[in-house]
Amino acid sequence: MTRMQEIVLLLLCIIVLLLCKKAGRAVAVVLLFLLMTLGDQLLVSRLSGVAQYAVLLICHVLRFLLPLAVSFYLVTKTVTVGAYISAFTAMRLPGVVVIPMAVMFRFVPTMTEEWQAVSQALRLRGLGATGINSILHPMRLLEYLLVPFLLQCSEVVDEMSAAVMARGFDKDRPRTNYLELKLGVLDGVLILASLAVTVWNLAF
């Protein structure tokens, strides 16, 4: 991927962020991209050996992952599960596809909240992931974090599956949605722009 392709792809992500009224996130993405670019241009030429390769690798990997991180944020944070379900239903997807996708889109942010809750509970008991605890008791810290987190994951998945089925998604019958989604002109422009950027990146 060339530098111009990186800029165009990131610009498309920033435009979508601005349309979703996430100006703060858009500014943070721009600043992070500029920081990685300046580090690539200024620091790499002044370093040598292992330090040069390390900085070069970090800058390139972060710049490569930045559009993916923005896309993940847009998918999980800016659209509700109800909107996804309404869109999938309008696309006439079967329930065996809608249910797993609905659970998946809600699962990721819920797991983030559960991880933060477990970490906060450990910190209140003096067992947080501090530098000293990580060095002196790494396995015990890992056990204290993972065991309650995995138990919460299991409970959350069961609750989500039950909630989805309680709403009738396991029945192969026509369903109504209070949220009606329609493709507009702006949606078409963004879809065409995304396809053009994808073809450009794959072809060149």
From TrEMBL:
Top-level taxon in the UniProt lineage: Bacteria
GO cellular component: plasma membrane
Keyword terms of this UniProt record: Cell membrane, Membrane, Transmembrane, Transmembrane helix
InterPro entries, per the entry: ABC/ECF_trnsptr_transmembrane, ECF_transporter_component
Pfam families per the UniProt record, alphabetical: CbiQ
Native source organism of the sequence: Pseudoflavonifractor capillosus ATCC 29799
Native organism taxonomy: Bacteria, Bacillati, Bacillota, Clostridia, Eubacteriales
Transmembrane annotation, as ranges: 50-74, 81-105, 183-203
Predominant cellular place of this UniProt entry's protein: membrane
Protein name: Cobalt transport protein
Membrane topology value: Multi-pass membrane protein
